[in-house]
Structures are given as structure tokens and as C-alpha cells.
Specification:
Elements lengths: L9 H6 L10 H5 L13 H5 L3 E4 L5 E4 L6 E5 L5 E3 L4 H7 L8 E2 L17 E3 L2 E6 L2 E6 L8 E2 L1 E2 L13 E5 L8 E4 L13 E5 L2 E5 L5 E4 L2 E4 L3 E9 L3 E5 L5 E13 L4 E5 L2 E6 L4 E6 L5 E7 L2 E5 L3 E5 L2 E5 L3 E6 L3 E5 L2 E4 L10 E6 L4 E3 L2 E4 L3 E6 L5 E3 L4 H5 L4 E4 L3 E6 L4 E3 L3 E3 L7 E6 L7 E3 L3 E3 L3 E6 L5 E3 L3 E3 L3 E6 L2 E5 L2 E13 L2 E5 L1 E13 L2 E5 L31 E4 L3 E6 L5 E5 L3 E3 L3 E6 L33 E3 L3 E3 L3 E6 L7 E3 L8 E3 L3 E3 L7 E6 L5 E3 L5 E4 L5 E4 L1
Parallel strand pairs: 12-23, 13-17, 16-18, 17-19, 18-20, 19-21, 19-22, 20-25, 21-26, 22-27, 25-28, 26-29, 27-30, 28-31, 29-32, 30-33, 31-34, 32-35, 33-36, 34-37, 35-38, 36-39, 37-40, 38-41, 39-42, 40-43, 41-44, 42-45, 43-46, 44-47, 45-47, 46-48, 47-49, 48-50, 49-51, 49-52, 50-53, 51-54, 52-55, 53-56, ...
Antiparallel strand pairs: 1-2, 1-10, 2-3, 3-4, 5-6, 6-7, 7-8, 8-9, 11-14, 13-14, 15-16, 23-24, 58-62, 59-62, 60-61, 60-63, 61-65, 64-65
Length: about 725
Amino acid sequence: MKYFSKKLSLAASTAFGCVALFGCSSSDSNNAASTTGMTSVESAVDVCGDYTAYEDGLGNTYCIDKTTGAVIYSVLVDGSIVYTTLEESSAASSDASSTDVGTSSASTASNAVCGETTNPTSIVGDLYFYSDASGSYYYNITDASCTKVYLTVASSSSAAEVTSSETLATSSATATSSTTGVTTSSSSIASTGSTPVVTFSTSGVSVENNNNCVEIDGSVVKILCAGIYYFSGTSNDGQIMVTASTEDKVYLYLNGLTLTSSDAPIYSQSSDKTFIVAVSGTINTLKDGNSRTNVYSYTKDGETKTDTTGAVIYAKDDLTIKGSGTLNVTGNYNNGIHTTKDLKIKYDDEFGGAPTITVTTKNHALKGKNSVAIDGGTLTLTTSEGDGIKSDEDDATELAEGKGYIEITGGKITVNSGDKGIKASNYILIDDSVSVPTLTVVASGDSAKALKADSSIYIYAGTLNLTSKKDDGIHANANVYLEGGTVTVSALDDGVHADNNLYLNGATVNVTTSTEAFEGVYIYANAGITAVYGTDDGWNAAGGSKNEGASASTGNSWGGNMGGGAISTSVGYIVITGGYHYISVSGNDVDVLDANGTATQTGGVLILEILSRSGSSSGNLGGSGWGGGTGSGSCSTNQAGGLIDTDNGYTITGGVLLGFGSQTEEYPSCTATSYTNSNYYGSSSAAFKPQGSGSMIIYGGSVTSVSVVDVSSMTAVNFPNGLTYYYK
């Protein structure tokens, strides 16, 4: 473990404005030559935070932005920590031989050294930094041989060792229950010591290694400046409050902390970014009260503002949660974890993996107004009234810049919500990164979708089990892209709904129950394996938008439960070019494939089935109930839908079509023959065994006639609902 004293030399602090990770003060320069009281605090990895730590074998650590290759700040062997500042660029350009211990950003071509043809990414004193395919390296310009010194990624440490005995004990105090005005301001106070360790207890709060950045006010611990802080112990009414500068990054290490508060146990009022780290092997529990009495006053951008905390963990800045420990959050007042900026839950090898987080709360479990991004962890989110995960950015400028999104790229997430499962005011993206996400959502409230986006929904990977007890499983106000992964949906209304286009491009999708399984203006089936079931339409291509909360009985433009009204326009198209798709329905007045415009098939496999008789009378094709005309293949058609119902025609030029039922409005070819669920039907190249029985099989594409088929020598494709299609 490395030893850092968090100091700057007098020369560095004078020349470079003393911009240090842990702050600086006059006392730091006085101790420049001394290591007395130096504390074994953090590994290089911990000091670099979100940046990547590299070492040169000489005791120096460089915190590098992996995207740009630039050195953001350096931790030198003597303990000095110096940031890059733009003011140093001109000095570095005019005097490349400067020996000041500082860091500068390269700005002109004159900075190129040792045969390099480009500017260095950074300059730290005599060291000129570059990167290539092998990694980051530097030249020391005092070395005439121009030796490349490659950096190695620093190893991580699991915890900090504290050797200093500086302790500040305070007496316990109880917060008043009356309305309290709390005034704070962004702090310019600088660190003068080592990493603080804060311990809560029933008798008060104690601080080891107070570095002039920890202030105790009764049972409230205020963090005033950037750095790393450890918290442990138990309090029945305590609070951690961050009031640092808006340029500061603050790390709160929860190291076995149980904190109950009448307000928010953790409130980050001011910083650049706040990081909460659940230390490996620890269990940390946070709980708030069921009301708020404190009104906080603070200054931001020269303007006085007031605020009331709205969550157990409440932040006014970017909030990141990481570490491999456990964090339990109980919200009695409103939300569980809430920031008005970006919320991230991260997998990080440097911290031993990703956290285990359990949130049980009244309103929203996780809320990032600007965005929510999750790439790891085991999350169990339960709400009685609100959404499981929410981003509700409503500022037009922020939305135009892409805010309001939710991205899930890893982890195991379970949501049981009183309202929507996952709701974004922009888009939702589900993909994989360091792991493949597993997502289980049960949404129970009125008009509560499992996934709901005001823009589009993109699913590229993962295992998703989505349940909406009263509404749609997946609902996007723009497009839905089912590109990959395995998606299982159970919904009272639509299984998957897009106000615009629905793309089936490679996902495995199983809609086990719905009113209308797939719904969009355009449905493009290009790839993937899907099996869906509906009690109204299987696939429904229709124009218009489905207003959230509209009653099915009023006949909105998308139809509704049990038919729920006519479509107002003949807009709606289905295009099938690939994939394997099984569509089934049962009930009265149902359509397996329904398009308000046209349906076209040029490839892929399409299996249609009516599981129970449709229609409002006992007549079959051409009978008293329908009075349809006679079609090719001695089958009759009707004007009430059934297997295929379009306004402007169904065309097939390739692929496979097999449909099993007792009625249809149109078909390419048909045979009026009885079938049962005991046999496979089709041709020598394509066959399927229906679930029920009926009197008509329609077919098209490569299937030119149908009969009972022996599939013993054919290749199987398994649908996600357990049925099998065979081909040769």
C-alpha cells in the first residue's frame, strides 16, 4: 500500500495555484520536506477515483483519463498531488525545459519531443506523456537518449489503513422536530490532514484524522471539501451532509454504517460529483423519517436557493454508487435514492465488483432527473406507490441534449412497483457491458407499464421478465427496437406497444398473455424468434397514438380491451422479411394478423393460430354468422377478420406462411381440411403442430400445399413458448 501525505511543495503551490485533490493550505507548504504524520490511507487506485491510476515504478502515480489519454492530476513520490491547469500550457510551450513540479496541458506543436510528431497528451514537469497501442508512456526531456517509460496500471486495495490518532469527539445531540431553517454555503475550506474516519454511536460522533474538512453539528456530519471519508457505526438520528465546492469530488465510504434520520441520512447539497462506496464485506443500512421539517438554504451561481430533501439518499449533483458491499435503503417519506443530476450504479474491478442494493420506499426507488445508468450490481427495488427506476427530465434544453434517459447495461435487477416499473422521459436502453443484465419487473398500478419511454426503447441484450398487471408490458411513445436478448412479457393490455414503429430485429420474445401482443403503426419483422398470445389481436398495425390512461371503452385510436373502438385511419403496415414468428389469439372478434393498411411477407416464417372459435355467432366460413364469399382452395372468406385481416391486402413473395383456424378475411392459398393437435401439418420443407383443432389451414410462400407431415428427419426451431417449427 502506498503512502500519501496529501501535501504540495511550496514551489508547486505557488506556481500552479495549489489545485489538489485533497485541497491545500498554508500548513501544507510548511510541511513540504516532512513526512511526519504521513498516513497509510489509500492505494493509487483509490486516489485516482474515476480516472485510471498508472505507476512508473519510481513511486509516482498518474491519474489518466482513459478516453483522452491526458494526465488529469499526478500523485508524486513526495506526496504532492497536482492538477493540470490551462494557465500552465503557455508556460510549458515557451519553456519546454522547465523543471517546476507541475502539470500542464499541451497546446502547441512545439511541445513534440523525442521524434514524436504530435503534441503530448500532458506535461508533468520534465515528463512528456504520449500513448500508443501498447499503452501510456512518457519521455523525460533531461534524458538525452529519449527512453520511453511505459506506465503500468496500479493495483487496487480493499480498504484503508489509518495510523494517525488525531481524534475529535463531540457530544450527541437530537435534531429538533420543529421547522428548522438550515443555512449552508459551498465551502472553500482545504484539507490539512489525512483521510477522516467518522464513527456514529449512541453517545455521539467521533472523527479520526479530521483534516479540516469535517464539521460536526450535533449529529450532523458536514463534509466541506474534496476527498475520501469513511463512515461506520450506528445512529438513531444522524446525517451526512456534503457542502463542498462545486468543483470537488467527494467519496463517502460506507464501512458498516447504520444511519436513521428524521431527514435524509445522506444529503449531498453541493459538490461536482459525490461517490458512495459500499465497502466490500460490509452491510450498510439507511432509513429516513416519514416527514420533513428542515428547509435548507444555500447559494448556487450567486443565487440563494431553498431545498427540502426528498429521499433517503438525496443529491443535488452527480451521484455514483459503487463498491462490492451491501446497501439497504428504507424510504418512509418519498424516494429511496434520488439525484437531480445523473445517477450511476457501477461495476468496478478496482472496488471488488458492484454493490448489492435493496430499496424499499413509498415513491420512486431510484431517480436520476438527468439520467440513470446501471452497469452492475444486484438491485431489489420495491415501491408502494411510485416507479422502480425513473428519469423525468422535463427541461427542453436538457432533453435536446439527450438527458432524461435510462441505460441498463449489466446487473441483476428486480422491481416490484406500485406504479411503472421503469420510466424515462427520453429513451430506455438495455444492453450488456461487463455482464449481461437480468431484469425482472412487476408493475401494479393503474396505467402502469413495466417499461415506459417518452421516446424510444432499445433492447439489445439481457434476460427480461416483464409483467404489467393493469397496462402495457413495453410502451414507447416513439419506436421499440427488439434487437437481442430474451424478453418475456405478461400484460393486461398490450404486450409491446410503439406509437410509431416496432422492430423485431433479433430478440427472442414471448408474450404469454395480452390483449394485443404487438402493436405499432409499422411492424417490421426482420429477425429473431417470437411467440405471442392475445385476446384481441396478435399483431396489430394501426395509426394514431394511444393516450395513456384512455379508457378502452371510449374507443381510442389504438382500439382497446376486447376490441375497444374503431381505428380512425387506414394507416398501419406489417412487413415480414425474416425471423420465426408464432402468433395466436382466442376470444370473440379476434384477428391474428391485423393491419389497417397492407401486410407484406418476403421472407421469414409466420405461423398463425386461432386457439378458440372467433365471431359472435355459431356460423363457420360461409355460414349464417359471416356470409363470406368463396376463395381459392375451396375455402370461404368473411369480412370479420380471423387469421389475416388487412384493409389493403396481404402479399407474400417468399418465406413460409402457415395458418390454423376456422375463419379469415384473406389468404394467399387455403385448404378446407380438419386438423388436430396430434399431427404436424405443412409440406416436406416446413411443418408445425397446432395447439388446437379447426377446419381450415392457410398457407403461402415456399409452402404450395399442406398435408400431415413426418418431421423425424427435419430440423427443429423452438419457440420460447415451448412449441416447435420444423424445416428442411
